Structures are given as structure tokens and as C-alpha cells.
Give the backbone structure.
Amino acid sequence: MSYPLAINHSQAIKLIAAQVSAFALGTEVININNATGRILAEDLLATRNVPEHDSSRMDGYAINLAALQMLDADVGAEYVLELGSAVHAAAQNERVSCGQLAIPVMTGAVLPQDADAIIIKEQVCIDNNKIHFNQLPKKHQYFRTAGADIQAGQVVIKAEQQISMAHLGLMASLGLTTVTVTKQPRVALMMSGDELVQPGEVNQLGQTYDANSGMLKQLLISMGCEVESFATIADRESLVQARFEQLKQMNFDFIITVGGVSMGDKDWIPQVLNELGEVVFHKVRVKPGFPLLFGQLGKSLFFGLPGNPVSAYTTLCQYVFSAIKVLNQQAIHKQVWRADLLHDWHKSHFRREYLRGFFDVGGDGHIQVRVCGKQQSSRIESLAEANCFIVLDEAHNELKVGDRVNIQPFSQFKV
């Protein structure tokens, strides 16, 4: 064996980033209504001004200040203008002019071409088809000038951003119907193990239900991947070799296996990957997830995840997700918050550990977090109860109530 064994977390992340950096996803043009969660492939430039013409921010009356007249009355001096035809927020054949008139304008309506002020409805009285007011409006007050929101040619969304629902509204406001995005990573996902049976099947002595397939597939989809599930690989070297030979010829960005990567007599995956592909590293000093395997098979990046559900979920979030970020040209750093620990916790080893935790906000406004019960890697209930990872680095040992710890909210692992 010439590859690194039992490396630390930082080394694993660096080796993954270096390997993935040689890969690139293509681009495709899709309808903006299907773009939520996708990664923008290039800077998006505004194709037009928003708004395209001067328009009103309020319901009121557009006037030309030079047309104002003073009318002396018993109640004092006031301004008077005759009303013209109203302009609404709708299509117009041509722009109107104010001249000597006050033009009723509704919010969003294109302003008359010679208008330079707006009087809002609350400030006028109407009598005999004329408006009366005694407060001189400020020039261009309540104007929404052409290009005030967006100017043609400006960058409105930068490349490599994940497209949000708000971005869809922004693109639609520019009249766009399509957008260029990075293609989604294509993932081959398969389980390994003679003991696995599918939910609904008879579970015989020595067998266990496959808890990973559906969970990991949906997690990968939520991370923005296209996932193809393959039949479970039996624990025989010849069958593992045959499956790997098949996958080697296929066009996947990631091949992810689950189980069969530890030190058991039937854990053939590390050996076969070393023979048919490349092992970059095997085993990371983290808990859970120590047996993690990473390498390359053909033109595909390869991850061999541990079989215990919590270990598989954790390593997918910590390492596969990082590789997806690099492939999408995004920063690899994960979202980390600080939280107050609600109880004592003893850590008896010097590996990085990802505890399953549940955080909320306390009465003092601070984020607080508790560990979700027993933390065995086979105990999937701890994962179902959690909404974050509590990240303990290699140096942590004794933690007390109120200690500040780092947490990673699960929400960041979903688009």
C-alpha cells in the first residue's frame, strides 16, 4: 500500500480538494422556474433597466411645477390645477404630457414625459374636476426613475451562487426565461453487504434492513445531485470487481459505496479500488466515520462510506458535500455557529468528533444545544432527533454546562 492511512480531518479535506480540483462540471441552459438550488455558471447581467421608464411610487397626481397657479381665497392661498386623464400601471401606446394639467397616476404607472413632481392623494382636495392643495411638492419626490433599481449591463447575480427563489423573481423582473447553470453532479450510489434486506422483505436471523439507501439518496438529491441507485453488492471479491469494472466505464462524477470499507474478512472494496483505480487515502481520525475511503475509479471520484447509518450520513455531509462544493467552484467552508452546551460532556479520545445535537434559542437570545442521547454510530435514532452536528476538535476532553461549542446546522446540507 502506498496511500495514506488514518489521516486527520484537515489532511482529508486538503486531499479531497486537490483531487476534485482537476474535475469540472459542464453547463446547461434551463428554464428559470426549474433553477432553484442550481449553481449559476456565469455572471448574470441585466438586459434592461428596471424600471425602464420613470414611474410613480405612489398613488397621486403628476404635475409640471412651472404650471402651478396661485388662487387667493378666504381660507388662504392654495394651488389649483385642472385634472387630466388618469394613467395606470398598464400598457400605453405613447407617453402623455402634463402641460397645465394634473395627471392622476397610480403606483407603478409610467409618468408623463414633462412631469417633475408628484402630489400624493392624501394632500389634495378635489372640486369641480380640479385639485386644490397648499403644500408645494418637492421636485422628483415619489419618483421611481428609470434604472433606479437595476441598470442595464450591471451584474445582478454573480457566478457560482446558488440560485434562490428570490433570484427567480429578480430574473423574471428582467424578462428572462432561461439561465445558464452548472450541470448537477451525477452520482452512482450502492450499498454493500450480504446482511442487507429492503424494507418490506422478510428479515431473517443475521440480516438487517437497509436504512441507508433512501436516506443517503435523498440527502444527495437535496445537495443538488442526480442520483442513480444500483443493486446491493454482495460480499464476494469477484462480484465487487465485476461491479467496479462496470462502473469504471460509466460517466458518473461520483461513485459512492456504503459498507465494506473496514477491516472485515469480506471488506473487499479498498483492495479492489486499489487494483482497478486509485486510493487517495483510507481512514480518517474522526468519530463517527473512521473507515472512510476516498479515491478515483476511471473518470469518477470515489467515496467508500462506512456502513453504520450515522457514520454514512456524517461522512457524506463532511466529505462528499465538501467535494460537491469544490466541484461547483464554491467555498468549501461549512457554516459554523457558536452555542452554549446545556450539560456536561466527556470526550475520551483525541479524534475530531461529530456529535448529533439539537439546538434552539434560549430565553436570553443565545443559541443553546444539547447532545441527542447515546452516540453510537449504529444508533440512527440520535440522527433523527438532531438538527445539527456538534463539532469537537481533537483537543476537546471535558466539557461543562455553559461551555461554548461549534455547531453545524443540518439545514446547510440542503439546497
The chain is about 20% helix and 30% strand. The chain has a mean pLDDT of 92. The two ends are 38 Å apart (CA to CA).
